[in-house]
User: Fold these one by one.
Assistant:
Number 1:
Amino acid sequence: MMALSDFVAELDQLAAQAQEAFDAASSQETLEAARIEFLGAKSGRLKAIQKQMGKVDKADKPAAGKRLNEVKQAIEETFTEASERLASGDTAGSSDVVFDTSLPGTSLAFGRLHPISQTIDELMDIMGRLGFSAAEGPEIEDDWHNFEALNIPREHPARDPLDNFYLSTAKQNANAPDDVLLLRSQTSTVQIRVMSKTPPPIRIISLGRVYRPDTADATHYPMFHQMEGLLIDKQVTMADLKSVLRLFATSYLGSEVHIRFRPSFFPFTEPSVEADFSWNDNWIEFGGAGMVDPNVLKAVGYDPDEVTGFAFGLGVERLCMRRHGVSDIREFYKNDVRFLQQF
Ligand code: FA5
């Protein structure tokens, strides 16, 4: 026995398949082959279904027969349409892409750069205009570039495994610090890489990712970006540092922004400062800075009596947040398109 619903479902499926095959035909030959497959008098697929009508309950037979005729007629009509289409010279077939100019227009949303990438481009542009060229360094660093050459000796707390992502922790206290690898915790590593290779004068910025095991909150993320600046020449002073940072701050955040330095400490600068920018009467810390420590200049083979320099490292996310009024750094890394589309 066959239920009427199963019989009808088979018919409907056949009709859909026939339509697809006829529409896709791109020549009279392929259309004829499809016709024989579906409508062939002896062994066509419609005929095969028709033969199953004997299994349908007697009471359902009139309904089944009616449906069979309807489907047969529909398939024949689709065939005639396809045949006419081919006769008129349209051999495209629906399997090829047909552009229907009468359809209403829809707009495609283009992809865009992530706000942090946009910020990096803009910061590079501003600093480029101030004469700084871009330099890059690896995100996986060794002991020498992340610590030793930056005047951070072996027992210094800045090396604490709780403050760094070591890639070879087993070795980090071993007697071979050369083997230590870690995700760089600051872009100051690039200062060392550039100075080791290039004689003074130097005027570079480096923008890239840094990693710290900080708990994520509104202003901290374990991966973030810094913009490192380094200028080495004869007779560079703190006044030059302040001028460059002021020019940068007003270019990026607007002419009403002021800048102030607070005394601070970094092993690789002396004196060291925290750089704050004012914003609607609020002072906000954007990064650290200072005059490059003579020990760092010596470590890269420079003569501290001949050259001096300044360096700074600013948080890129914090700058972008301030500029666009973003109150939580975590928004940048949620990958929520509704947030990202606003930039
Ligand atoms: C440094 O990293 C120094 N290398 C800066 C420096 C460079 C000083 C050159 C002297 C000379 P600090 O740890 O303060 O400094 O980080 C600099 C900035 O990075 C902070 O002011 C803040 O804006 C940003 N920052 C620090 N930690 C995070 C974090 N977890 N998430 C987002 N931004 C952070």
Note: The first strand starts at residue 133 and ends at 134.
Number 2:
Amino acid sequence: MTATQTGSSNPHRTPVPEFDAIIIGAGIAGLYQLHRLRKLGFNVRAFEAGSGVGGTWYWNRYPGARFDSESYSYAYSFSQELLDEWNWKEHFAPQPETLEYLNFVADRLDLKRDIEFNARIEAATFSEADNRWEVVTESGERAVAQFLITAVGVLSAPYIPDIPGRDTFTGASWHTAHWPHEPVDFRDKRVGVIGSGATAVQLITEVAKSVGHLTVFQRTANYCIPLNNREITADEQANLHARSGDIFEQCRHSFGAFIHDFDPRSAFDVDDAEREAIYEQLYREPGFGFWLGNFHDIMTDEKANATIAEFVRRKIRERVRDPELAEKLTPRDHHFGTKRVPLESGYYEVYNQPNVTLVDLKETPIECITETGVRTSKQEYEFDVLIFATGFDAVTGALTRMDIRGEGGQLLRDKWRDGPLTYLGLQIAGFPNLFTVVGAHNAANFCNIPRCIEQNVDWVTDCIAHLRDHKLRRIAATESAEREWQQHCEEVVSGTLFPTANSWFMGANIPGKKRMFLAYGGGLPRYREKCDDVAARGYAGFALE
Ligand code: NAP
């Protein structure tokens, strides 16, 4: 491949730097992609909107932010040296520790010299004449490369609902993903939080520890389950290091790449007493075991699901003292696990505090945001701080917010108006030489994400190396392969309960967004098999030139 060159077809324009590959994003995926391609001798540049590395863990600095994956299952697995050098302090690391870890990796691999920070890509255009992509940053900087790899994350396009008066509030206000870098003091403050998803659950629990008064605006109650986090002891640390290979191997074979995997038994293979004892046991264990280590049919059979949903409802009633409040916090409009299950560390007990108020938006909807707070159909609430924990335009938003133009000048957001179409969640017909790491209809969207990122990046890297070795300049998914992948994705998820919920998995959290399962519902092992099979058959379903 070519070394760095500069040049331009227009002599009056500043020369545009040329690379073999451009990566958008320097989060977990972008960093690993940069490392892999650079190791193979490619000339690569990454563009990152933030002022530092970390992606999700750079942006989401809200109080209480931490992993829901076991720390030691979340680290990069590709380098034994990195694994040996890093000690996680807690079983589920908080955001500052994760950001520190990603900086440690970036520094150890000397990645930052090839990353342009504070450089948000606004547009990317494919040139059919020379099979290259040109990207433009918000400040007008340009660069050209044969390959464009988006590593923009699943949950990176923050969503703030279009509530009347949204911008009129004069106090401090943030979306959780645009949290300030300086600590925020909540003492003696009146704080309002809109939202009750996984982010809000972490944030609320932490803010409630010091707040003057906290008001939570909840539209939909969730099934929250205990995280059961704690510090890693010295003995555990040694054991985790010794077993790291086994841990990653276990993740490699589990559905969601977690250390947990579904129990092959049905919820009805055991009697009521045994089932109850199993649920009790799982409820006390750390992490997602209660969801992803449970009977396999809780995600496919409504009756099996009802047994676990009822168990969680009972737990909520036991933990919240006021029965009316407990009822408001109890989900009844969706099946357990069909929306991402929030993991909590004392969330329900927060509502036993006298300085915490829950506003049920199903009873009293928000009418508008005012200069001083929030007005519902019943009353006005005044705040010093108003927090939007209102989620993301997930999976597709970060891509469709950019002007990505493929063959014939087609805009990606136009192509995806009726929902995303991809091949393997990694390429898009009509957009040659563009790879979407962690793209739509990719296992990575329902995954212990670094595990899926490593799979995605390894596949993309092998593909690009294959093109170089065979002196090929262009790879493009065919429309028929894309259609077949789409059908396969629909078939896989149709056997589950996921499509029944108004979740971000279904695109249903964004008004007007096409309702469609945005991930790959067949799990990582099956997904990997599909990807490997395509590569083994000479990149079947792709046109190579
Ligand atoms: P979310 O799950 O989409 O939750 C958004 C919340 O905002 C919901 O309660 C939603 O209510 C509410 N909302 C949206 N529009 C509203 C409106 N117009 N009026 C009132 N309420 C409104 O977003 P999130 O909590 O940021 O979580 C997103 C994902 O991030 C999670 O599912 C998870 O995958 C990831 N996450 C991961 C971690 C971790 O790994 N530790 C932590 C946090 C988040 P409805 O439910 O009624 O729509």
Note: The CA atoms of residues 205 and 346 lie 7 Å apart.
Number 3:
Amino acid sequence: MEDSRSARAALGVELARSAGEIARRWFDTSALAVEHKQDGSPVTQADREIEQHIRNAVSEHFPDDGFLGEEFDETIGTSQYRWIVDPIDGTKSFVHGVPLYANLIALQEDNDIVFGVINIPNADVLMHAERGKGCWKNGTQVHVSDRTELDGAYVMATWLEDWHPDVIVDLHAAGAVLRTWGDAYGYMMVACGQAEAIVDYTTQAYDLAPMPVIIEEAGGRFTTLDGARDFDGGNGIASNGTVHDSVLKIVNQG
Ligand code: IPD
Ligand code: CA
Ligand code: CA
């Protein structure tokens, strides 16, 4: 089982890199046409091309695996593995020329996420983790920060429209430094100790699928806002572990 997991993880890293190459070809070009989905969120040829590229490679190498991606219908597999892919996480950044978007690939084995990768092509950062093998950023093992207090802790948001103003006021009063270095970029920052927490109030499974293994292998904690260890609960919080309960207490009162 370990071998087949690692073979998939190796493919996942390779595919995250090639996804980044496709994204970079489109990034900040006038050729990029932006459409809007029914929910009003933007989508581009790059989102679809990347997901199709990853789907093709997975079905060629592991035809029995399931596949859930943001842009096309789910493929139900017959093996114990399911790939969960967000071809471009942070499409709003991508279409506005902000280089903090990411390519996300996760591997679910039965009910556990056992591998995840966050690739940030324009920053030349690739972070990946496999269950039991640590979290790695460009080949160097990384850990969450050891800050224990909210005072001075960096707390990230992706967008503020769904934050209750009291939560912002109370985090600020507790001494937290609030920034919107969000989407997967914020989770990458937490995993490598550059920030202490990130909170997302509205998410889908593919937005957060790599985070349980990335954050936990870096020594941190990832839960829903109810404190459940679940990437598919419609929201999420990642932290260095020590500030987790303090942040949860404030965000849940809003
Ligand atoms: C977005 C990001 C973000 C979350 C949004 C998503 P997208 O994904 O994952 O963190 O808060 O709800 O829409 O659409 O840019 O892939
Ligand atoms: Ca996303
Ligand atoms: Ca996306």
Note: The chain has eight helices and 14 strands.
Number 4:
Amino acid sequence: MKSAPLKIGIACFPLIGGSGILATALGSELARRGHEVYFFSYAQPVRLDLPQDNLHFHRVDVAHNPLFPSPDYTLPLAVKMTEVARSQQLDLFHVHYAVPHALAACLASQMLGPSAPRIVTTLHGTDTTLLGQDPDYRTAIEHALLHSDAVTAVSESLRNQTQQIFGLKRPIEVIPNFFTPNKPKRSRDEVRRDLDVTDKFLVLHMSSLRPVKRIDLLLRTIAMSKNRQRLRLFILAGGPFDPYEPMLDELGIRDVVIVRQNTAVVDEYLQAADAGLYTSEYESFGLSILETMFYGKPVVAFNVGGIPEVIGDSGPLYPFADVTAASAALDRFIEFPNLARELGERGRTRALKHFSADRILPSYEALYHHVIGTFEQGPIEKRM
Ligand code: GMT
């Protein structure tokens, strides 16, 4: 069913990281479906291609006023959201993260009064898993969640954790992340030649390298492989790798690891890879895992957070920190390419079935229409 066009303001982080990537993909898909989308952030989101029909980007200047002890982003963001909502008559704000985006939306809503856009807040993890336990933030997050017209979480696991940590009575709808592959600009062979891995088994890891990603376990998994001279670990790093440099020598894997920094376009590397390796101690979802699945590559990961909801029955997961099992799984892929291909194909089938834009976008559109009261989409209790 085609949804009536809406005017939607999206606030998100612009840098490499799943929440900004998801918000950007969502905005682009909504624009393609005829909605008018207005992005708010302090920089252009890395995967936001402009110009595009129906897509607008509003840069928010971080305030460096000497009156304040630190730069301020939340107030300038709230002011920009207010101005654009007023001039464009936005129907709703869809904010990714309670801090600071939902709080800025709440303030904008107060400044705008009765004509304010509705607020949909999507939780991606940190609001619950880190800030939710921090007494300096908890009350503000609770306020943002209670004053949003709808709250979504990217997995059942995150929803349950949020309900538990905040003791929330309000419903939280689970709308999983999605991914739309972009046609790679270079062929698999070209990329593999460029990386000098033509005869190697290429293991891909993409992340911000934050402590939660457990890069120590990632490197140990590689170091334990029986086939480590036949493989290369290729890290697409969204954060500094320097803290892990010493481990390369300690583990004797310097010649096995290739690191590329801040690469926004990942499709050609996904196509060039043979498997994905993710060793996080927690993921609310694991968008990189989904991206890997979309390219038909088998994934080795631990059974934590929302990862089982993404992988489903498409392959095994391993107990957290069991680097022996993770390494043995990689060895099996290297020794039995048919097994790797079969698991990769199962992952791809699952990704296409459950996590494509066509599958997920209607849930967001239905929720938007529900909160602004313009659309009947079955009993809401079932969806919340
Ligand atoms: O995990 C990161 O380093 C980035 C973070 C973000 O906010 O961009 O990712 C979170 O949101 C993603 C999109 O929903 C999820 O796929 C990631 O699992 C989640 N990260 C964590 O929960 C640690």
Note: The chain has two domains: 7-178+357-373, 188-354.
